[in-house]
Design brief:
single chain, alpha/beta, Rossmann fold, 6-stranded parallel beta sheet, 34 helices, globular, binds ligand 26Q
Amino acid sequence: MKTTAPLPKPAPRATEPAVLAAEIVERLTYRIGKNAAAAKPHDWLAAVINVIRDRVIDRWIEATQKTYEVGGKRVYYLSLEFLIGRLMRDAVSNLGLMDSMRSALSSLGVELDLIRELEPDAALGNGGLGRLAACFMESMATVDVPAYGYGIRYVNGMFRQEIHDGWQVELPETWLAHGNPWEFERREASYEVGFGGTVELPSADGSGDDARAWKPSERVIATAYDTPVVGWRGERVNTLRLWTAVPIDPILLDAFNAGDHIGALRESNKADSLARVLYPADSHIAGQELRLRQEYFFSSASLQDIVRRHVQYFGDVRTLPEKAAIQLNDTHPAVAVAELMRLLMDEHDLTFDEAWAVTQPTFGYTNHTLLPEALETWPVPLFERLLPRHMQLVYAINAKLLIQARREKKLDDAAISAISLIDESGERRVRMANLAFVGSHSVNGVAALHTELMKETVFRDLHRMFPDRINNKTNGVTPRRWLQQCNPELTALIREAIGDRFLDDTEALADLAPLADDAAFREKFKAVKRSKKAALSTLLRERMGLRLDPSALFDIQIKRIHEYKRQLLNIVEAVALYDQIRSHPERDWQPRVKLFGGKAAPSYHNAKLIIKLANDVARVINHDPAVQGLLKVAFVPNYNVSLAEVMMPAADLSEQISTAGMEASGTGNMKLALNGALTIGTLDGANIEIKDRVGPENIMIFGLTAEEVAERRANGYNPREVIEGSRELGQALSAIATGVFSPDDRDRYAELIGGIYDHDWFMVAADFDSYHGAQRAVDTLWADEATWYGKTIRNTAGVGWFSSDRTIREYARDIWGVLP
Ligand code: 26Q
């Protein structure tokens, strides 16, 4: 509804501790129904969130109003994952209420840090891609880009990981158990989403008076839940809109009355399953029908919402590209391309060419992986059965593409079958990456190397046909969550040293660089690091009974468990080090704690075995008196955003050791460097750009380059030969393979290690000596404190560019055409 007269605005709310305290008590009493004496910690948390929420809502309404008034272009970020974590600290801190809230609560005898821990993590994502979406949401609000995030409100997000006898066990995570005070149900934003059924031939003249071509056999309702996203200094509040599915007719009364209770509930169960669970795999695409249903369900609801809003405010669907930029987070929402075509043609009566002229300039597509096993394709028969109308549209888009390719005569037959939206090389499959590429005006990679490799590998032929479409947008992370909030001690130290400018412009961290040569500053930097290591040690003692010495070097690898990320290389190197300490106890070893954290996809056998190996190796090493005080290894269970917030600030050494060419970007690498860790890493993903910014002398680079990896693979790489040439490697591998760390099952690792001898696809053997050498160089550096802390300070100073604010400004300027 457009308003004519300006409505009265609520008065700005006070921020003094006394006012906050009074409001908290008011909420506790009248919304939660308890008095201060009876309130449990959860009640305090709910009351506090309520108070913050009201302040967020004022700004939320204002920001939405502002965008409407100026008729501005909006960004729609479509993602099956938003790994947002806890929201309270983020909101309090971005509103600038941290100190007031802390003293308000302490006047009530409540400790902010204690109740904060009670908020569950919203773990609606697997890892990097999902966390990136969350950082982007916060940065879009910060740099004043009007944006909606669209996704699914999974009832069960990422599973909770427990370790039983060294093995990963997956348990359901119920983040909504205590309700979710941040979200607002929007029943008025509900859309019908269909599946299956038949398509009636459009009438010959194409007019077909409102005759909708597609008659679905199943229908569900998508209903929106909105969560406000607060930017830094509360400047703008954007919306994260997550869909849930409700059955059209919750209980089919006829069936119910006829006594068929099960039949009556079947429809309801089908709808429930759509928003039930996040697929916990970030590789090895499980081609399950439910996943495709989820992808279409949320794409359709989001597109209907976007088109409805556009028509409501601007009247004409044809101007959509001027007012909306839709970004596809990987191929997971790629079916949205066909869905927009359907809406434009079947519901708004545009011709195919007219619809294409609206669709293609509206979409942008971000690719996050080159791994062939992670490229999404769907069998044609499944796609056709579930989405018959979209299948027709995919064929029509493909025909247009292939005709153009033939006409241009740049591509031969092999290249033409490579660009086709249909893979005809076996069972026919729809290639979602090709659909996303062709349906978008921009296709971007997430780090410089990754973008170049996209042009040479997966999209080689599409790139030849559309040479201007691929562009790079190197990832970034939000410095609010990943520096200010998780490391207030370091933030305070930096402010004292260089002032506040870096809080609004992360690149101002560069002003710290000269202080790397200041002994007094290095001491303070060291003291902060030390306190964060002590805090992590306390947490790990409470959680897992682990005793760590905070003066040891904390060497940390935290990320999803995957063979290409090479946790195995790290473990094998730990075994080699263990062996050397035992053989040469007289040498000047530097005490080291090796920590691992991460989840394995439940169906990924080798990843789960690597977790077991880390635990087996940890048990043996930690119980051996010969290395006491020198080497300790631990696998930290249930790595998630909240644990990351404790581990990132506590790392001395950041392990970024993927096989070169395989990690699209990495974002943990940025968070760790920002918090003053030194990187040991390969020339892969964003590590290369980190090296360029911190300087090659402040990062420990080792191993083959992407080019060398490709060359080795092409020229018959022989891992056995390499293993024979390295005594340390050979000994470590055979110790693991023969059961030294698994006396209860000596063959447990025979196959895993056998793979290194046989093919070593991930180049563990090829990179071992170089990695081992780099680790010993790390020891030498660590022994020299002035040099070490000088380097870590130069890391924090050098990585300001990896703020997601910078990334979002680049998207806004180059892809979306929205300039704040
Ligand atoms: C697809 C279909 C069916 C089921 C699951 C999936 C699926 C889900 C998640 C496929 C991939 C993912 C996640 C990928 C991911 O996290 N990629 C990472 O993205 C980061 C942000 O760009 C990069 O920094 C990492 O390098 C990249 O691995």
